[in-house]
Amino acid sequence: MSKQTPFPRTFSHIGLSVPDLDAAVKFYTEVLGWYLIMEPTNIEEDNSAIGEMCTDVFGAGWGEFRIAHLSTGDRIGVEIFEFKNQENPENNFEYWKTGIFHFCVQDPDVEGLAEKIEAAGGKRRMPKPRYYYPGEKPFRMIYMEDPFGNILEIYSHSYELTYSAGAYS
Question: Which segments cross the bilayer (predicted)?
């Protein structure tokens, strides 16, 4: 039996947890321009297909939550959850711990999007955008935080263009 090279899987979606679903939908549709594809919906722990699916994931006793589904311009899904008894961590940027610590969006106007995020209640995690290859290439980035504590990064250029240039200089 020959070993086959695996094909690169595509990214389907990411799930975010927020304390205020309506405010998050407003932020992500108005600031990042994502499409709302399923209005905020209440999901209850019951014998429905979605209720049982969530019990499989969260375990018994989760009660209920609200969820909305959005989509990015390149068709990546974003599930936004609002759980009862939601807790905001004191520091949501524990990058040294296992798990996802940020997601990244792409916009050629890094500075402009950073300003929009700040104006909508988010904050900068860096004072200004930085260049990956100063004086050589225009690739810029900045770490930000949405108004709900989720860490997002902004790239000026595609991931592939940024890293196909080789190692950091």
Answer: none
